Every structure is written in structure tokens, then in C-alpha cells.
Amino acid sequence: MSLLQPPEAVRGMTKLDKEAFRLTVDLPVIEIEASDVGSVTRRVRLESFLIGHKLRPLKNTMDSEKEGKKYLVFNPEKVEQDTLREKIGALIKREIDDGQPINWTTLSKELTFDNWDTKSIFKAILPVGIEYSSYTQTGHIIHCNFADEVLPFRHIIAEVLLNKVKNCKTVVQKGNIITNVYRNLDLELLAGEENYETEIKESGLRFKMDFSKVYWNSRLSHEHERVAGLFNNQSIVYDACCGIGPFVLPATLKKKPRRVMANDLNPESVKWLKVNVALNKIKDDKIEIHNMDAKQFIKENIANDVIRLMKEESGSEDFDENKLESEIHVVMNLPAYAVNFLPAFRGALKNFETELKEINKKWKWNVYCYLFAKSQVDVPDEWYEEEARRMCDEKTKWDKSLVVNCHNVRTVSSRKEMFCVQLEVPYEYLLAEPLPEEPEVPFEPEEVEEPSCKKMKMDN
Q1: What is the pTM of this model?
Q2: Is the domain of 82 the same as that of 39?
Q3: Percent of the chain at pLDDT above 90?
Q4: Which of 4, 105, 342, 383 has the fewest Cβ atoms nearer than 10 Å?
Q5: Domain limit, last residue, from 70, 88, 111
Q6: What is the three-class DSSP state of 31?
């Protein structure tokens, strides 16, 4: 048993008792002049033997009871051998050599709940062989999901997090299944306030939300930045599943596209998107916001808007050959369902064939479709990208693949990968006969990611 971990008596604890974490430890120390601390710690390589900063407020150097003296505080597990202590003492004496002997003594310190970090506490209370470390913080809310063997300890874990994590006021457990197209989660309050309205910062922007009514995943911050970075000041940006604005807000502020339209089926997402537009001092006319089904948004709003903009540019006398050419970017971040929106692009411009003949410059269409590639068995890594491409090709039903790039966003859980598939949609497809209307694909319940997972590597 480690000398620097909570008492064994807390093992199996399910209700937090801070007093049970109280423990007195004897720390090996060497007392030296305070004026010598700097030279000793610079010249004698003691870092791997000192106590470190794991057990705050314990530090490598601490005040002695004697005026002008300091203790070098060592990790008792690192300096158990007498021969090692002799070597360390000799190195220190060689550095300061003031004629005084180097003596090892002990410093008794009482450690309490406040001294232990969350990792040490979880390791101490959970049964041997069971670990927990995965949680995500969104503003003042920490949200957890637990493996079955950890569930009996969820309330004490929540209490520990509430006490230990800075700015945490609420701890919730996410439901295991997302059962609706809004992708908001059933939440179980485990500790703290039942207050789900929170604010976070991402990419220098502020986002407010009701965490219980909208979807937000802080793990996607790099993906939000990556996609926004694909745009420029001539981009035409349409977000069909915009949420509270993680794509359109940074794009609008940092890339200043010529046109931005955002849509979401969830009225709560639209409500908070409007709040965040104002919060980040974006003028209302910079983002046109809609609340409708994504397929309808593609077939009607996007199609009409593109034709209008292209006609305006074709009729303009202010043509500048040095200006960047506009491109259309359609983002569909609803990974459990968005692939079902792809057929909406086929024939989306069919009713505008006459207008298109009069337009001298047609813009390139880029579609970014988020999806999950899942397997029921262990498969090679490359299978997931092949599956993502196959899923898109199956929905577009074209004589050749429209997929031009397949970006792996993250591993969600074992045998489940999230991709952003980029498709380049030709005008032949946009003008083709629309596909026959198929029965609405029911929303498939989506498993929330496991608390920790590693995809099994397959041998070649």
C-alpha cells in the first residue's frame, strides 16, 4: 500500500465522509538554510525524489520552525533506502559545505480530504481493478456517464467532483441513449444545483445554453475550428443543423463570409443561437436563422437563396477577376441522422433550370455530412472510413461517388467512429430528377459514448 494515498478504510465508500480521509504521514526532510534552497534545487537534481505538488499544500520546500531555515521535503516512497539517503545528503553537503552535518529528520503532516486529488480519491474508494476518470465540464455543469460497475458509486463520485473541480456547481449523469432528433439528453442530477442554464467560452466566443434542452459537446471544439477555417470572405455558408452556433458564430466573426444561413429543428437551439448572436455582438443581418426540418431547408431555403445570389452576381457590373470565387458550404452536423438528408440535394435546383442557363458563373457545392460508422465486431481501422463512404454513396444513389474527403473526427466508443464526410455535389446531380419520396427514416436511438474506450487494433 502506498504511504501517499487515502486510508484503506475508505474503500467501497458510497456516501462521502470527508473525515474518513484524514491521515497523518511522516515525511522525510532535510533542514537547510533558506538562502541555500535556490542553489541546491538548481544544482542538485532532486526533482524525482521530492514530494512534488500532488498533495497540496505540501511542497518541495516548506518553512521550518526555526527562523531562516527551510525543509527539503522528500517523497517517502522514493527515499526508503539508507544508501540512497546517504548519497543525497552527500550531494547536498558538497553544494553548501558550511561545516554542518546533513541530517535526515521527519516532518509529521496531517492530510485531509482537501489534500487528495480526484484521481487518488477515486482510486481509493472504488473496488480494486475498477477505475473512473472520464467526465466533461460545460460551464458550471459536470456531466458524467458510467460503466455498469461504477454506477453504484455515482453519487459519491459526483460529490467528490462537486468539491474538487473549480467552478463546478452541478453534476449530472447523462442518459445512456439519445432518443430524439434534438439530441438533448435525459439528465439525472447527482449533486449540486438543479440549474442547467450555463455559459462557456470556445474559440474566444461566448455560448449560453440550457444544457438540458440543447446538444453541446466540448470535445468537438477542434472540429468546429477546423470547419470554420475552410471558409473565406466569399463563402456562402449554410448550417442545416446549427445547434446553438458552434460552426456559424466563429465562421461569421473570424472569416466574415458573404452569406450565412443557419437552421435547426429544435426551437430551443434556435432560441439560444439568437441569444448567442447578440451575446457576441453579431448584427442580426449577418446570420439568417430558421427553425425547420433540414430536408426542407435544403430543398427550399438553400436552393432559392443560391439561385438568388448567383443571379445577382451574374447581373452585377462590379465584376472583379481578382476576387476570390464564391463556394457553397453546407454543414450537416447531426451524425446519427444527417446521412438521410443527402437525397434532398438531388434535384434541389430542378425547378431553376431556366434561371441557371442565364447564370454565367456557377459556384462549387461542398457538403459536410457528419455520421457514425459502427461495427458489431472487431474490424481493421480502415473499415470505418470505407463504411462512412459507403453510407454516403448508398444515400446519394449516383453513378459515381460524390465523396472527396473523409475526416475522422473522433473515436466515440469501441467499434464506433465519428466522421465528417465532405461531398462535392455537381450541378448534374442538383438538376437530376429527384429521388422518389421514401418513408421517413425513423430516428435511431443513439448510444452515448462510453466513459472510456480503446478500439482494438487488428493484426494485419
Answers
A1: 0.84
A2: yes
A3: 77
A4: 105
A5: 111
A6: strand
Is the pLDDT assigned to residue 347 strictly greater than 90? yes
Give the CA-trace dihedral at 290, 296, 299, 303, to 10 degrees. Answer: -10
Helix, strand, or coil here: 224? helix
Q: How far apart are CA 39 and CA 19, in angstroms?
A: 40
* Helix (H) / strand (E) containing 290: strand 288-290
N-term to C-term CA, the chain: 41
Q: Tell me the residue type at 72.
A: L
Residue 9 counted as an annotated binding residue = no
Is 143 annotated in some ligand binding site? no
The helix/strand/coil state of 221 is helix
* Residues 95 and 129 placed together within one structural domain of the fold: no
Helix (H) or strand (E) holding 367: strand 364-374
- Residue 411: give the domain boundaries: 217-447
Strands (E), 48-118: 61-63, 69-73, 104-111
- Annotated binding residue 333: yes
* Residue 319 clears pLDDT 60, i.e. is over it: no
Number of domains in the chain: 3
- Which CATH number does the domain housing residue 341 bear? 3.40.50.150
The annotation status of 265 as a binding-site residue, yes or no, is yes
- The three-class DSSP label of residue 193 is coil
| Same domain as 415, residue 340 | yes
Residue found under cell 449540486: 192
The amino acid occupying position 286 is K
Cell numbers that stand for 237 in this block: 455558408
User: Cα separation of 102 and 299, whole Å?
Assistant: 82
82 is in an annotated binding site: no
